[in-house]
Amino acid sequence: MALSKAESGLFEEAAASLTGMLWRAELAVEEIPAPQRIAPFSVAISADVESDGVDVGQGRLILLHDPAGNPAWDGTFRCVTFARANVDHAMVVDPLLADVGWSWLEDALQGRGARYVAPSGTVTAVSSKAFGSMEGDPDRAEVEIRASWTPLIDSGTAIVPHVEAWQDLLCMVAGLPVLPEGVVPIPLHRTPRRRR
């Protein structure tokens, strides 16, 4: 199927806005290979979250675009995310953790004024204890959020609030406070890799 210049141009603008973001100093972000079979257009980034030199979380964000639309998305764009962080062991057994984890996503999107429809996802809490020859390994507790939503955008720059919300989500999951209003992230000079 041949795509119009407007259709491909909107995605290219959105991809450039995503990969050209200014990130918080705690995030190390890079462009990664995007899935090729889900949609005609896609771009993906991954992030490691650090606090005081310690890796406290990871995440990925994929932006998909199908100009023909997708009934499951209720639109032509789709944001897909994965966020994981170590948490206190007491949090893993808290029955409200899943609800709180989901509210982090909703709060991040609302806080950035990101317009969207059709959100879906899961929140998983995992606790692990090592035994046998691995007995010396520390116990681990993690929370993992997998989610997707359809951003309502009519220009490439309209994706920015969604990407900022993703940044906020990663930081909330990793236990870092959201930047106060008016505080600007430090610009990091990276050479983005283009996907295709």
Written account of the structure:
With 196 residues, the chain is an alpha+beta fold. It has one domain (5-171). The chain has four helices and six strands; from the N terminus they run αββββααββα. It has helices at 5-19, 89-92, 97-111, 160-173, and strands at residues 27-32, 41-51, 54-70, 75-86, 116-128, 140-151. The protein has a six-stranded antiparallel beta sheet. A hairpin with a 2-residue loop joins strand 2 (41-51) and strand 3. Helix 3 packs antiparallel against helix 4. The longest helix has 15 residues, at 5-19. The protein starts with a helix and ends in a 23-residue tail after the last helix. Residues 1-5 and 184-196 have low confidence and may be disordered.
Question: Biggest β-sheet, characterized?
Answer: 6 strands, antiparallel
Name the shape in a single word: elongated
Tell me the Rg in angstroms.
18 Å
Q: If helices are DSSP runs of H or I spanning 4 or more residues, what is the number of helices? A: 4
Sheet with most strands: strand arrangement: 1-2-3-4-6-5
- Please tell me the overall pLDDT: 85
Report the oligomer.
single chain
